[in-house]
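Researcher: Sequence of Phage Gp37/Gp68 family protein follows. Predict its structure.
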Amino acid sequence: MSSYSNIEWTDATWNPTRGCTKISAGCKNCYAETFSERFRGVPGHPFEFGFDLKLVPEKLEEPLKWQTPKKIFVNSMSDLFHEDIPDEYIYRVFSVMRLADWHIYQVLTKRPERMKRLFDTVLKEFSDFKHIWLGVSVENRKHGIPRISLLQNTNISTKFLSIEPLLEDLGFINLKKIDWVIVGGESGPRSRPIEKDWVLSIYKQCKNNKVPFFFKQWGGVRKHLTGRTLLGKTFSEFPTIKLKEVPIRSIILDRRKSLQQTA
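Model: Prediction complete. Tokens:
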């Protein structure tokens, strides 16, 4: 979507698909849906069809055009593992991540069943790439906690949890094989409350398990006022990964050509 992002834990967003459908409690006040539906019916606008699911193949090459290394949130306006996105298209998205390997890709889903199934089959060849991070949303115990075990059993190198919006005390969290945890409260006019004790419980578990912890926000109606300070500090930890150097321009052009030939 953009080579720059205001999302605290990423640098840029990339949306080779747009739109989604709601499947759990965390979807209730979806920011992406709210934004998209404002433009429904506007001719020529990227969200002319609101939040209806749409493939955007013209966006596939975007990361290959960004020569400055970035952390890229993949599908900030969708879910790459949505059931209506063809396996072949998802494979093409991951092929771009492999080619533009000087970036970090943060792929977040509420559909880990399909994610795991694809990484056992058609996406298996992408399993060992450390610059491709897969994460699941964890908003509560009912919907979120089961996603963690599915992620832990997915054949991927780097795994993370996005515990946002945090809607209740999660209790004990199994952090085995988890490389990063993001926590945040819901924001916006209909935001649901978050409790400090819920956040502290997760922070302490991350600290005890030596898992990098990123506290994104307290949220609320005016999130710029509530901020993101916890225990008098700002927690902005990330997994440690050494990125590859950006290849010379001729190599990048060759990679773009190879991508176009396999489309």
